[in-house]
Amino acid sequence: MSLVSFVVNGRRNTLAVHPLKRLLDVLREDWELTGTKEGCGEGECGACTVLVDGEPVNSCLVPIAQIDGARVTTIEGLGGRHPLQQAFVRHGGAQCGICTPGMIMAAVALGKKPSLHQIRVGLAGNLCRCTGYSAIYRSVQAATKRRNRRERRDRRDRHTKKLRTHFAD
Ligand code: FES
Ligand code: FES
Questions:
Q1: 84: helix, coil or strand?
Q2: Is ligand 1 within 6 A of the CB of residue 62?
Q3: For residue range 46-64, what is the model confidence (pLDDT) as tens digits?
Q4: pTM to 2 decimals?
């Protein structure tokens, strides 16, 4: 057993655990964060994707000892109202439920304004074996558009506020 200390979804955790226990199993069994799914268990499908220090990793391949001192974000850490989660529901990207959490976590790592090409490349390690990728790409694009619209609106509001303050003086 080793003592491993890391942060999961903003909460620090120290665990006495076998150093080779997989991050995936620690999340699901020790933390009851069952949103992270196991597909292949061999690093091929991406269903188990979580973020470690902001980078997407296949948690089925990571021994917990490697996570010491790291920050881990799982699908639960997005809080259920992340623009990507909403877009996956609205645009049909949430299909089988096994691949979806991994797809969303990989999409989070793409940043705010990924192009379609970047989305395709970024999700290339996340396999869908049932209905295909169109709805998934559409969902990521919709979340991007929505976020961009919101940012434009916030910028415009800030500008208007500045003008008002300026002319009120
Ligand atoms: S379950 Fe980890 S990559 Fe498939
Ligand atoms: S494998 Fe999940 S939607 Fe295809």
A1: helix
A2: no
A3: 999 999 999 999 999 999 9
A4: 0.87
